[in-house]
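Worked example

This section walks through a single chain of length 303. The input is the sequence exactly as stored; nothing has been trimmed or padded.
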Amino acid sequence: MDFNGLFKPYPANRPLTDAERERRLLRRQRLEVEPAYQLSVIRMNSTFMELVDKHFAWKGFLTSVALMGFTLVAFMLIGIALVDTPEGIESKWLVFSVTSVMSLLPGGLSAWFFKQDNFRFTHYPIRLNRKTRMVHVFRINGTVLSVPWDEVFFCIAALPQCNWEIQGHVLDKNGVTVKETFAFMLHGTGDADRDLLVHYWEFVRRYMEDGPNSVAKHVKYCLPIVDKKESFAFALQRAHFEVGALSILIQIPFLLMYLAIYPGRWLAMRTCKIPVWPDEIERVCPIDANDPYRRDASTNEKR
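Given that input, the structure is written out below as tokens.
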């Protein structure tokens, strides 16, 4: 999991690095790899494709951590209030007060984690309009970044702990200074995962450059989150899909961990709002009901 871009925006008003230039992804360059959509498509058609953000998969993890922190602090305070005071302590309320002060750090940190995950948005979609050749990014604060596809500097970017992700940089007129950064859903750890990012990039690139016919066959399932919050059944189905290619010995611990954090995910999803695109963006993103390349949650069972 990776929370870069969630706690605070990516660094801005900085020059492109040499590493970013070396790992640049070119829009016009076709890569001879199999495109991979990585269960990131919310909907797709001949006009636009909408993708889920990088934080969606682990939504609720921070809430689960916060709930554990709140529970630990509560048990500490209740325990101190109920037990007899040790000899030499004038009042158990003194012990209670000291414990309360000591609980400020874990309690405050838990509250901060809770805030990052709740009362925001269920997800932060990215919409790629191939007809207007625009990229629309739903920001963490609820505003929308709209930038021409042809003006975005794409690259495979390095993150802490040997993590990698595909980033899009909006550059100043000088073509050097990074004004804003957004990231696509997929990220990986280590050199092997970095190579897998290319497959996802090729999926996105081909849609924009070659059209929906070039990638439609790869989209097997669309996330049913356009106008509703995910159900428990869908959450488990998505988690199982993500580890379906792994051995059963790895799948079971992963799914058990997901079940453990799901209460936090459920709470986070229920406190968050479903993102809604501005009218001016919806107007330039019409959907033809007879579009042969239309893919969304309603078509999942039909294919």
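What to look for: Residues 69 and 110 are 6 Å apart (CA to CA).
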